[in-house]
Amino acid sequence: xxxxxxxxxxxxxxxxxxxxxxxxxxxxxxxxxxxxxxxxxxxxxxxxxxxxxxxxxxxxxxxxxxxxxxxxxxxxxxxxxxxxxxxxxxxxxxxxxxxxxxxxxxxxxxxxxxxxxxxxxxxxxxxxxxxxxxxxxxxxxxxxxxxxxxxxxxxxxxxxxxxxxxxxxxxxxxxxxxxxxxxxxxxxxxxxxxxxxxxxxxxxxxxxxxxxxxxxxxxxxxxxxxxxxxxxxxxxxxxxxxxxxxxxxxxxxxxxxxxxxxxxxxxxxxxxxxxxxxxxxxxxxxxxxxxxxxxxxxxxxxxxxxxxxxxxxxxxxxxxxxxxxxxxxxxxxxxxxxxxxxxxxxxxxxxxxxxxxxxxxxxxxxxxxxxxxxxxxxxxxxxxxxxxxxxxxxxxxxxxxxxxxxxxxxxxxxxxxxxxxxxxxxxxxxxxxxxxxxxxxxxxxxxxxxxxxxxxxxxxxxxxxxxxxxxxxxxxxxxxxxxxx
Length: 485
Prior knowledge:
The protein is mainly beta. It has a single domain, classed as Neuraminidase. It is 12% helix and 34% strand.
């Protein structure tokens, strides 16, 4: 199994002032260019909206620790902020994927503002697929006339089947909103449309769990190949029955289920790797606004339970990460900040506790009286402001949340907490793919009545390493054959 190690660093001055019970502190920042591309060269061609299909963007939608310096990041359904076809909400045939990133923390120079420098490096891109057939749109839902301000505009769209399906003999998931079966509910696992929003790594390190907004779904994918292993059956009250390629139409035609584009935004896995904990971004159609649902899934049995979360500050929830088997951090945020043309106000982490929580599976309406207890743990905006980062430079969509390796700073053990942004594939307005690392001490957690247990993850070779190993074996085998000959 992977053994956690501490990265030492002496920062006596900082902790002499703040003491052992200091508040959570920013220890490093870093980023990856928003104008770069990932390693999926097969998807490098232009999408329907004219954007390259392997633009490195949106990778902070979901972030997971995979042991050591390795992290997994999930971009969402792809670049859909560029207007080209309102009949599919400007979504394109961007193939769903996850990125593997090495996050290296190195000691900063003496007297520097932050104790560490974070250097992220992209090491692999893995496309997500299904061994069984998926339902794709014919293009008909994206073809027709739209009248705006008295002006009629004609739109046409081709099939939603990725060309790579035939080339690689598989079935890829994509972000196009018309890739669904209109005769089934949104929980249909055969739909090709996927909007990844959160990711966690399995205990054996060989697979990843990804939650989505379209279903909502929780799927398990093979970490080496990207092929789907399992689809978890979620409570039926999360799904909608009237599907549309246009989000506003979906919202207006359903009275039960998730709100379009506000499905299962966050996902946690308990440290023992036995339970998944998902959280919806917004209230279901049948619930009162501000009454969000938490869904737990036993990985082995598939058994589910639902609990209530009361939204108090932000406009929605973006992520949840485990502290231990019953306590979690939840990311509440507004939509303001860099990318929105405004200044960030609410980006806050709350500690919650599911111990003795009331199951609300059979309830609807106002769930706030059953809500789990919550305590403010970290005001991210205030902490970034205190380190010279202006509110208008703080990304509007801080969505990824993951613990990493432990650090020893000034003699105090710190649990590294990574926060990442979704830049919507718009580096020009939303900036690069950014990462902010905070140091969390046991004293910080004790202040809110919490403890931390690290996830135990087995070490497995990265896909790039596996490819090199296989290439080496092939080379050695070829040399052996030549010697025999």
